[in-house]
Amino acid sequence: MFYTSPNHTPKIMFEHLIPEQLLTRKEVAEILKLSPHTLTLWAMTGKHLPFVKCGRYVRYKPQDVRDYIERNRQGGGD
Question: Domain 20-78 carries which CATH code?
Fold first, then answer.
């Protein structure tokens, strides 16, 4: 997606090209109050939480973390 800047130079609108910030295993572990090792085990077994592989690194989409939390909500009368 392009737009024209005030000096009429085409610019790329990167927010359409770059996805939301990915989270590290450590960040997700802190959010979910789990150990990073638990997330490693989940990744090895393919259970619970989808992840993105970036070379040798594992990253998580924030929306996947939010979806996981919603899927696992208990009680509350909803």
Answer: 1.10.10.10
